[in-house]
Write a structure and sequence with these properties.
- By secondary structure, this protein is an alpha/beta fold.
- The chain folds into 2 domains: about 190 residues, Glutaconate Coenzyme A-transferase, CATH 3.40.1080; about 240 residues, 3-Layer(aba) Sandwich (Glutaconate Coenzyme A-transferase).
- Helix content is about 30%, strand content about 20%.
- It is built from 17 helices and 28 strands.
- Helix 16 runs antiparallel to helix 17.
Amino acid sequence: MLEVVFFVKVFINMKREFEELYQSKLTTAEEAVKIVKSGDRVYGGTASSGAYALLEALWNRRHELENVTILGSNNYQYTPIYDESIDNPFLFNTYFMGINERKRLKSGNPLTYNSVHRSKIDLWVRDIGKPDVCFFEVSKPDEDGYMSFGPSGVALHKYVQTASKHIIVQVNNNTPFVLGKDNKLHISEVDSIVEADWKYDDYSAGEPDEVSKQIAKHVLMEIHDADTIQLGLGNISIAIGYGLKEFNDLGVYTELLAQPMYELALNGNISNNYKGFMDGKSVYSFCMGKPSLYKALDHNEEYFAAPFTFVNDSRNIAKNMNMKSINSAMAFNIYGEAAADCMEWRQYSGTGGQSDFVRGAQWSKGGKSIIATSSSFMKNGKRISKIVPFFAPGTAITTTRSDIHYVATEYGCIDIRALTMQDRARAMISLAHPDFREELTSQAKDHGLL
């Protein structure tokens, strides 16, 4: 009965010629994934646009295949193909570590990762990912037979489509038809069509903690009405996002469209009238939030989705007036350099779009780049500083001292861009937890910095 209802919903508005083409390619997930052979590289999705029904069908073929690599990033919903057990035969490659990728890496299972700016995602697809087969979750077709790549697929799926030999789509009645640039593909361009009404899980960070709220207070002092905003993931960004309810006429130009931005729009805080670039539109590349957010994107002309290569292009970011880029880090050294993706040989996330927005925001008229973190954390009952004189071996610098602008903790938000290294050290020490300021000062003196 469910299949019949879905069939009617899919075809009710489609022209007959495309209905027939659709029907000719319609198959089951089990049949569709038989196109995958040993040695293939299979793209399975990104963030909220994962083709889970197809991935599960491929998982069921695991004993028939060898050396199959799964490509993608941040597929946060559960699927057995990311199982941590040692007998999982699949290999993995990602351009940005998410929940499932971190589990794989921690368990010692084969996973490779790359350091790539999201603005250069086309290079990852072409030179590193090299997909043979792609699995796309897509919306139901429109009357002309076009299906949307969905809430996160627009970020890179057009490049994956071009690079792949075979294209299988999972048509999901819950997937919104998002509008924008390179946001869709046609029935005629795919090899097989599978219908699967996969439900979207809720992705939200919950209520921010008190430290995040204090950091947000400092950061919000650098924001004004009519600014253009970019926010990243995590508690600090959530706290800042909800703090923006005190502002008016905000604009959105961001790689990630998260739940707070949607709620700001509902609250009337966002007008997109004063951006100076793509006015009237909230521009983004991928989306992670609650099902209500995904549903709101369907045919909504107030939102414009575009690939990472467009949204994260620093030259496009700079076209926005009063661009305020707000991201997070895991630690800072005393020069103000940010480590946001890899600490002590352990990869936690990826280079992502931090550098793209750090530079683009500073080129914007009235723009600012702000990177925030809590000053310390507790581990096994001991407080550990996140501001250090130097990083431990194996720690990657995500944002260099030549690019850094504002640094924020719960103890303030300081523009360190134009400071000498000596004054930067003093500023960074003032942002550290009081328990560590004396020690940091002593170490800076020992190394001749103070």
